[in-house]
Design a protein that fits this description.
The protein contains 19 helices and 32 strands. The chain is of the alpha+beta class. The longest helix has 22 residues. It binds one RNA strand of 76 nucleotides through helix 5, strand 9, strand 11, strand 12 and helix 17.
Length: 646
RNA sequence: GCCUGCGUAGCUCAGUAGGUAGAGCACUUCCUUGGUAAGGAAGAGGUCACCGGUUCAAUCCCGGUCGUAGGCUCCA
């Protein structure tokens, strides 16, 4: 028998008989850990039991590696499908991919899974894991594969095969009695999969299309060790604790009312404080960057949205027209057309550019009822909106200027992880989803890409995620505990300035069309504050906190002094209040803690006598007794600096 | 919009195998004046989401509506 030379990464090169499997090699070589789940043969992920027939470089991976974990998740999805088929034999399987730290499998079942079903499926999975079935695959011809899955009555698999490219190699994986069409690769046996948990079940459409059959999707997760699994589940718990809907209610920041309507949040005084602080920040930054503030109405005649293209490309997200004096009026979904109008109101010279208009404009979008989600997805929103009109020469600098503004904001909010996602158009959607001007699309996309590259900003590209009028940058950010949010956006509009006949007179007297950049670094108040609540877990930094200082008199003998302290602080713009209830100091402290008030000032006999305050800060063990002046100067400074620590 | 849960006091939740409801916290009043995470007592608070049906009787069963939760984005 022929020998082949195998170079093992992390171990030595060896000679092996052709036909040996990576699994056999891993068992014979000491340096290879016993917990490998998959390998890369010449950089291609490959099953451990796939025989090797030629010289190769091979890398063994355990489930802690990124690829290894993905394979483990994918194999767990199959394990789950096998359990489902055992318990519910009439089930038809569809697809079961892995995601980040999760997997799912979609099933066509007669009755949706209940909680109890999930736990019995999980139980069965553990049983199959103990059976330690070998996971093997074979390559099938298209004809054989179709007849196999037809015989198994797995019609979705047949459909999948029929839709695959002719060149695709069809693999059929088996573990015990369970057989599935799958590209693989997989872990070598079901015994490899031990530490998993089913998370939830819900509905999903076949191929994500609402016209198709409703399937039951079961989500689950799987890890190489019980410890890793626990850690992940704890993280999910932590995310739940920080849910902005929960904390928003606890801290009385906003609410929804049935009589007002879904997706139409009402901001309470506490929440409105945060809004005011964000607007003050935006105004400060925008003033410094040469923006001019404008105000525009919420209602507009339909003709404007015909011109802008909204009626053609965006109607499904707009509230239907209302009849006013026999004309169609719409409530605005975006501020751009109004800003364009302001630009066009007076003739512009190249000297006026870049012309930057900003507005915390209130917009209304008709989001499908099932898509509404706390503050994250709403129907009424206030955007940190602005439009920059500039020449082609100015474009790069302006665009990068906006990106740099993002960074400034991220620093202020302590956002450490973020990613820019460049949304490009999909040529298939030209004329439908996107304005039909292929040349301009190409050019603008290239300009944006170059601007980002020249500025040294990292980004990923995503085809099909452009706005209807141009490419855009969406900024993903991660909260302090690693939950991902899509907050800000920065978009190029190459089409609309022309539609609005926006021009400027250039130095040579000719009339030219400016480019327009839409930007909203702080997104909407709704989503941004939703993010901030989860990012800070409700423990807002002092400058953002709805309640900054609570003054707690030890008994009501000291209420007058407390009032005096309070009004002094209020004079200095500090959000202070006195807890003058007839309660013990311990109870007052407890309540202030629960309300996550940043600073408590304890005042009793000692403080009244010395004209001082005793400062008790959240998260700070040591207390300080200070003169009121010293205290207020200190926190005034902290507030002005917008310090992120609290 | 679609699928499946869920909807009881301001909040968190019990409860009723069909006979119109209960706790804790919060609130009001009184007592207490207490130095670092809950002092005590009393009181008030509900068309059991809404509309309809079955029934002698519905918060409970049935249907509809509204709201809400998990999804419907990652595609063998």
């Amino acid at each position: 028998m022929k020998n082949i030379s195998i170079n093992i990464i992390g171990a030595s090169t060896g000679s092996y008989p052709a036909g040996i499997t990576p699994l056999e090699i891993s068992e014979s070589v000491k340096e290879i850990p016993k917990n490998v789940v998959i390998c890369k043969v010449d950089d291609v992920l490959t099953d451990l039991n796939e025989p090797l027939d030629k010289d190769a470089t091979i890398q063994f991976l355990d489930a802690k590696s990124k690829d290894g974990h993905s394979v483990l998740l994918h194999s767990t999805a199959h394990l789950m499908a096998q359990a489902v088929k055992r318990l519910f034999p009439k089930t038809k399987v569809t697809i079961g991919p892995y995601l980040d730290n999760k997997f799912y499998y979609d099933f066509d079942v007669e009755t949706p899974f209940s909680e109890e079903d999930l736990s019995s499926i999980e139980k069965e999975m553990h049983k199959i894991s103990k059976e330690n079935l070998e996971i093997i695959h074979e390559v099938k011809s298209r004809k054989d594969a179709i007849s196999l899955f037809k015989k198994m009555k797995e019609s979705y698999k047949v459909e999948i095969i029929n839709d695959l490219e002719k060149s695709e190699v069809l693999k059929v994986y088996s573990q015990g009695e369970f057989t599935d069409l799958c590209r693989g690769p997989h872990v070598p046996s079901t015994g490899t999969i031990k530490h998993f948990k089913l998370l939830s079940s819900s509905a999903a459409y076949w191929r994500g299309d609402e016209n198709n059959q409703t399937l039951q999707r079961v989500y689950g997760t799987s890890f190489p060790s019980e410890k890793d699994l626990k850690k992940y589940l704890t993280m999910l718990e932590e995310q739940k604790k920080r849910d902005h809907r929960k904390i928003g209610k606890e801290l009385d920041l906003y609410f929804h009312d049935e009589e007002v309507g879904p997706g139409l949040p009402l901001w309470t005084p506490n929440g409105a404080v945060i809004i005011d602080e964000l607007e003050a920040l935006a105004k400060e930054k925008e003033d410094a960057s040469g923006y001019k503030r404008v105000r525009t109405p919420h209602l507009t005649k339909g003709a404007l949205y015909e011109k802008s293209g909204h009626l053609e490309h965006y109607t499904t997200s707009m509230y239907p027209a209302m009849d006013v004096d026999g004309l169609d009026y719409y409530i605005k979904p975006m501020n751009c057309p109004h800003h364009h109008k302001i630009y066009a109101n007076r003739p512009k010279s190249y000297r006026d550019l870049p012309y930057r208009l900003s507005e915390y404009g209130t917009c209304y979008r008709y989001e499908k009822s099932g898509e509404l989600f706390g503050l994250m997805r709403v129907r009424s929103m206030q955007m940190n909106d602005a439009h920059i009109y500039c020449t082609e020469d100015q474009f790069k600098e302006e665009f990068i200027g906006v990106c740099k503004l993002y960074m400034e904001y991220f620093k202020i909010f302590g956002i450490e992880k973020y990613e820019m996602r460049l949304g490009l158009h999909d040529p298939k959607g030209l004329g439908k989803k996107y304005i039909n001007n292929p040349k301009l699309w190409k050019k603008t996309e290239e300009d944006v890409r170059n601007a980002l590259k020249d500025a040294g900003l990292k980004f990923v590209e995503s085809v099909g995620d452009a706005a209807f009028y141009g490419p855009k940058i969406d900024v993903q950010v991660w909260s302090a505990i690693g939950k991902e949010f899509s907050l800000a956006t920065n978009q190029v509009d190459f089409a609309v300035p022309e539609r609005f006949n926006l021009t400027y007179t250039d130095g040579d007297g000719s009339s030219k069309t400016p480019l327009c950049i839409h930007r909203a670094p702080l997104g909407t108040h709704e989503r941004f504050i939703g993010f901030l609540i989860e990012h800070f877990g409700g423990d807002f930094p002092l400058w953002l906190a709805p309640k900054q200082v609570s003054i707690l008199p030890v008994s009501d003998k000291y209420n007058a002094y407390a009032d005096q302290v309070c009004s002094e602080l209020k004079k200095q713009g500090v959000r202070a209040e006195v807890d003058n209830r007839s309660e013990k100091i311990g109870a007052k402290i407890r309540d202030a803690e629960l309300q996550k008030i940043n600073i408590m000032l304890i005042v009793g006999e000692k403080e009244v006598d010395g004209k001082v305050v005793t400062v008790r800060r959240r998260f700070v063990k040591e207390q300080e007794t200070l003169s009121l002046d010293k205290f207020s100067n200190g926190i005034r400074k902290e507030i002005n600096e917008r310090s992120v620590t609290n």
